[in-house]
Amino acid sequence: MELRHARYFIAVAECLNFRKAAQQLHVAQPPLSRQIRQLEEYLGVALFVRDKRKVELTKAGHAFLEEARKLMVQAGHAADVARHAQKGEFGTIKIGIASGLGGVVSKVVFEHRRRFPTIEVECRDIFSNFQNEALRRREIDVGFLRPPVDQVNLECELLYEEEFVVILPKSHHLAKRRSLRLKDIADEPLIIFDRTFSTGLYDRIVGMFSRQGFTPHLIVTHVEAHEEAGAIMVASGKAIFVGAGAIVNRSVSGLELASVRLSEPEAKIEVYVAWRKREDSATVLAFLDSVRRALRQPVHEDIA
Question: For a tag on the chain, would you pick the N or C end, based on fewer CB atoms within 10 A?
Answer without folding.
Answer: N
